Amino acid sequence: MQPSGKLRLGINIDHVATLRNARGSVWPDPLRAALLAEAAGADGITAHLREDRRHIRDADMTALKAGIGIPLNFECAATDEMQAIILTIRPHAVCLVPERREERTTEGGLDVAGDENRLAAFIAPLRDAGCRVSMFIGHDRRQIEASARIGAAVVELHTGHYSDLHAEGRFDEAEAELAALRQGAVLAAALGLEVHAGHGLTYDNVAPIAAIPQVMELNIGHFLIGEAVFIGLGPAIEGMRRRMDQARGL
């Protein structure tokens, strides 16, 4: 199966807030970054409201929802506090992720299969409020099937392990992980789930993920915010878009 159609690109602006919070200032403003991303052709904005508020804060989510003209993807853990905030803000999409306070970034995928009943109940009011709910998971069959059973609209496949292997030059292992991601994408699509992917993607490793036919959207943040330090956010996003389009044969 050949890739078809243009991939959507969601830009995660968490680490603009990380930089702001390091100085305890109001600069740089995550909303300004989101608007620059929108102007550069981003299809959506992703922001992760962590329980410890280490980067994005509640006021940022409110400002993003009101200020951008493209969909807002609200990443969070499946807690009562986050559910209440989501139901107040009503973003276009919600991506549920595992979260541990001591981690630097999201490690691994959500265990949907091990928490199926609670997650089914958790997402029901979000769906009723019009949010598209996504599960951030690995490529394991059990997690994909459980995501379909609980009524998620989307699965976002965790590409972090693939990205790490690629960065370490362990290309045979990276290829095996890529093959597993491809198989997961095929299964998810067959079950009626929309397939997204993200975590750790860079200019060097994005093409094979972008070429997976079932993948409809990539969410990329840390690399592009870092690249923006050197070349600007707009050019960084445009460079990623070119690579995604090339991978799709566009």
If you had to describe this structure to a student in words, what would you say it looks like?
The chain is of the alpha/beta class and 250 residues long. Helix content is 48%, strand content 16%. It has an 8-stranded parallel beta barrel with strand order 1-2-3-4-5-6-7-8, surrounded by 6 helices. Strand 3, helix 4 and strand 4 form a beta-alpha-beta unit. Helix 7 packs antiparallel against helix 8. The longest helix is centred in the last third of the chain and has 20 residues.
Features:
250 residues, alpha/beta, TIM Barrel, eight-stranded parallel beta barrel, 8 strands, 48% helix, 16% strand
Brief write-up:
The protein is of the alpha/beta class and 250 residues long.
CATH class categorisation: Alpha Beta
Question: How would you spell out the order of helices and strands?
Answer: EHHEHEHEHEHEHHEHEHH
- Which stretches of 5+ consecutive residues score pLDDT under 50? none
> Which class do the helix and strand fractions yield?
alpha/beta
| Percent range of helical residues | 40-55%
Beta-strand fraction estimate: 15-25%
Number of domains: 1
Average pLDDT score: 95
Helical segment count: 11
Q: Can you tell me the CATH topology?
A: TIM Barrel
Strand segment count = 8
Radius of gyration: 17 Å
Major beta-sheet overview: 8 strands, parallel, barrel
CATH homologous superfamily descriptor: Aldolase class I
Principal-axes shape call = globular
Q: What distance separates the N and C termini?
A: 16 Å
What is the level-2 CATH architecture name?
Alpha-Beta Barrel
